[in-house]
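Let us work through a complete example step by step.
Step 1: write down the sequence.
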Amino acid sequence: MEENANKIDDMHENDPKETNGKSTPSRIFGQVREFFKKDLVSYITKRILMFIPTLFLISVLVFFVIQLPPGDYVSSEIARLTTEGELVTQADADALREQYGLDQPVIVQYFKWIGDIIWTPTDSQYYRLNHSHHNWKYSFKFSKNVWDVINERLATTVIFTAVIMLFQYLVSIPIAIYSSTHQYSVGDYTASVIGFLGTAIPNFCLAIILMYLSYKWTGNSNTGLFTPEMKVNGVHLYNFGELCKRMIIPLIVLGTSGTCGIIRSVRAQMLDEVGRQYTLTARAKGVSERKIIMKYCFRAAINPTVSGLGGILSSLFSGSTVTAIVLDLELQGPQLFEALKAQDMYLAGAIVMVQAVLVVIGILFSDIALALLDPRIRYSGGGR
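Step 2: predict the structure and record it as tokens.
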């Protein structure tokens, strides 16, 4: 009898509903709370929560900066029609402004724009026509929905930016490691000269030179990412071989322009780490030089480069517009330029907002990578 009583007591102790006098929901809630108290999780959660106010401030700045130039889309359209010899009366202009909602105050236009992007009611005309709760408005310049215009080149822009960024890191980091371990050598000076040349020469000038050389050597300037044969019914068909050939010039032009900064930053940090006391101690204990460089020095030296990931994304999105126009690249940079020229505020604002979201996501990944590389980051910015 006593043995059976002990078994019953053991069953009650192991019963999850009776553990520590807490029910299962309370225990699960406690586990979730403990999970979010972890340093890395708390750090990432705080960064994600910063998304909302950051994007809100970006949207306000974007919309009001686009409104700063005098006039609006109707003014630009009237000027174009006037140069073509057509007569547009004031009544016609007022009717157009009322049709496009440009007769409202700027603050009203902003809240209408951002409100429709966040949520468009089911009973609205836009939802009935497009079956979407996110109304990005209508592009005056391209005469179609803004999101349709963005979607045509968004995937290409993201892939192109990712390839350029990957190229920059794969080229610059090995060169920086070599330069720091072979300081003042011929290879160090050569890498520095090439890096500075890539930064000093304007991208569009280098693009024109390479286009000329390509035409002289191959008979084809290799502009654009797609040939006419790679486009069917308005949709780009990705021919991998042809795409790789046409990516050579953009890679050289945009890739080399960003490598110098990464090389100089990583090289300087590596030189600082190599001379620290812990590396001397590691050498005295017989640790291999390769392990000291790659496991300890490089891990500490890469922090500034990882933290600058968001800035590199931003520069690639915004800084490649002129180069994209020169090389006839089907990216969003030329679309944004055309929208700004026509004062198509909805399209320009939407493109900048999409790019801002991608940059903020890139910064989040940068922060996570930085927290994984350096535990001090998550201890200081996390839950402790």
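Step 3: interpret the result. The longest strand covers residues 138-139.
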